[in-house]
Write a structure and sequence with these properties.
By secondary structure, the protein is α/β, with parallel strands linked by helices. The chain has a single domain, classed as Vaccinia Virus protein VP39 (Rossmann fold, 3-Layer(aba) Sandwich), CATH 3.40.50. It has eleven helices and eight strands. Strands 6-7-5-4-1-2-3-8 form an eight-stranded mixed beta sheet, with helices on both faces. Helix 5 links the parallel strand 2 and strand 3. Helix 7 runs antiparallel to helix 11 and helix 9 packs across helix 10. The protein starts with a helix and ends with a strand.
Length: about 290
């Protein structure tokens, strides 16, 4: 079984950062956790089933992380697939998980600045990305980068973190935001289900489906479900042998458990409406995605 010291040599995102400072999701990846979605692999699979991806589809995935969802998408044999990931190491990792095919590519760049052609895809997918954006970047990413490349009537799927119940007091929601941000070292701004729906519909999408799963990212049963028992044991061992990593993981788990009644994984499926284009008036940008050879 691979020990933590050998895991450190793998060219993973954040591998050159101090354990005490790296984003929480890359810390977990360094410890051998590959599924990094708030609702787990089960909710990702439910989202993909609802998207009904098939051989005619042209897919764009934002922030594929370590390629777990990308591999599931490949099983549905879409016509073409492009993923955009801002972290070059994560992009290379994902590229290495996918078949060598001219219709499959992974690119490096910010999801906010893709300049993908309008009406060039049938499905856009994004997971665990919007929750780490403040309000205006959330809206701009959806309006300018998810809405534009989709053809009319086509599908957008997101898998994010939600706060519950829907009428949670704003003071409590801000407390949760601060607690999450403090332990994952990334801005955390999850929304209620109604707010996610309003955000999508406000830029021209029509929400056609919503699904939920408990936010049990660091619970033993979810770890086994997402990683398999051998990888879950490897993850546990890697946590045990590194004091700094263990301290951070325990802090993340403590926050998740403290607010377990107020956190949920959520997916939403939306279709692009037929109204005015949401990106009208958006500034033109130069192309900023760099295709990686795979």
């Amino acid at each position: 079984m691979t020990d933590f010291h050998s895991v450190q040599t793998v060219d993973l995102p954040g591998s050159d950062l101090d354990v005490t400072k790296m984003p929480g999701h890359w810390l977990l990846a360094r410890l051998c956790k590959r599924g990094l979605r708030p609702g787990g692999l089960g909710l990702t699979r439910a989202m993909l089933r609802h998207l009904a991806i098939g051989p005619a589809d042209e897919i764009v995935e934002f922030a594929p992380g370590l390629g777990v969802t990308a591999r599931s998408i490949m099983q549905r044999r879409p016509r073409c697939y492009m993923a955009g990931e801002r972290d070059a190491k994560a992009a290379r990792w994902t590229a290495g998980q996918l078949p060598s095919n001219p219709e499959i590519s992974v690119v490096v760049g910010q999801a906010h600045h893709t300049d993908l052609p309008a009406a060039s895809s049938t499905v856009v997918v994004g997971e665990a990305m919007l929750s780490m954006q403040t309000a205006e970047p959330k809206r701009l990413l959806i309006a300018a980068e998810a809405f534009r490349p989709l053809r009319s009537g086509e599908r957008y799927g997101i898998h994010e973190l939600a706060v519950v119940p829907g009428d949670i007091p704003s003071v409590q929601q801000r407390e949760i935001d601060r607690a999450l941000s403090s332990v994952i070292h990334v801005v955390a701004r999850p929304l209620t289900a109604a707010a996610w729906k309003t955000l999508l519909e406000g830029v021209g999408f029509r929400v056609i489906g919503i699904g939920y799963a408990p936010m049990h990212l660091l619970r033993p049963l979810r770890l086994i479900q997402d990683e398999g028992i051998l990888e879950a044991l490897r993850l546990a061992k890697n946590i045990m042998v590194d004091d700094a990593a263990r301290e951070r993981v325990l802090a993340m788990r403590w926050v998740c458990e403290r607010y377990r009644r107020n956190l949920s994984g959520i997916y939403l499926i939306a279709k692009k409406g037929l109204g005015p284009r949401a990106e009208a008036g958006a500034p033109q940008r130069s192309h900023s995605w760099i295709i990686l050879s795979i």
